[in-house]
Amino acid sequence: MRIPDTENPNSEDFQKVLKRAIEFTIQGTFFKPNLNWFFVLGGINLGIFLILKIIYLCLKCGCRSF
Question: Which keywords annotate this record (predicted)?
């Protein structure tokens, strides 16, 4: 609902708009976060770690296949 374009809006209209704004703010504050990005970054981090660990172990043991 929108406040009418008058200098002195109706008290009921103002209360409705204010109530809706407060409800919208509360819903925006307490939303369930999306953690997909966390798993993607964790997978990338683990993959890079494993690749570097394998390369390090191969170079340490003398395997020159790289």
Answer: Membrane, Transmembrane, Transmembrane helix
What is the number of other CB atoms lying within 10 angstroms of the CB of residue 58? 13
Cite the DSSP H helix spans in the chain: 11-29, 36-61
Compute how many other C-beta atoms are within 10 angstroms of the C-beta atom of residue 50: 10
Residues 6+ apart with CB under 8 A from 13: 1, 3, 4
Give the single-character DSSP code of 65.
Answer: -
Give Cα 17 to chain centroid, integer Å: 28
Q: CB of 3 within 8 A of CB of 9?
A: yes
Q: For 18-48, how does the pLDDT look when each residue is reduced to its tens digit (9 = 90+)?
A: 888 888 888 766 666 778 889 999 999 999 9
